């Protein structure tokens, strides 16, 4: 039996529901209660496992205080065959899903919540510089490890 994979549009809409819900500090339990659903059903909506119907999406938009269009932002138009148009879900556009994954994570939500509360612009700049420095250092470490592994791999093939 072949397992059906969620439609990319349903995944996108669900991730936008999760993003907004977390931004306003609403739990899955509370959203489910407002909708007359269990938190498990909300989880399925957020993962894209279950498709959200139009009337339910309208209800969710009202509860979360956003227009329905919010759930479709950053989504490319599908072509006539139902697949994503060029650039929609292509690898070249990989930064958008990575960003959405981060912004929807607990750490991303916390940074989004607390960073704007820092009013001192010099402190904010130092935080950004620190994060950039740590990311650069990690990238250098990965490149160095890959360079060290490359000769070992070629020796095996020799």
Overview of the molecule:
- The longest helix has 37 residues, at 121-157.
- The protein starts with 7 loop residues before the first helix and ends with a helix.
- It has helices spanning 8-23, 28-35, 39-47, 54-64, 95-104, 106-114, 121-157.
- The radius of gyration is 21 Å and the shape is extended.
- The protein is mainly alpha-helical and 158 residues long.
- 12% of the residues are buried.
- The chain has 7 helices and no strands.
Low-confidence stretches: 79-95
Category by helix and strand content: mainly alpha
Residue share in helix: 55-70%
Terminal Cα span: 44 Å
C-alpha Rg (nearest Å) = 21 Å
- Percentage beta strand: under 5%
Mean pLDDT: 82
Provide a concise account of the structure shown:
The chain has 158 residues and is mainly α. It has helices spanning 8-23, 28-35, 39-47, 54-64, 95-104, 106-114, 121-157. 12% of the residues are buried.
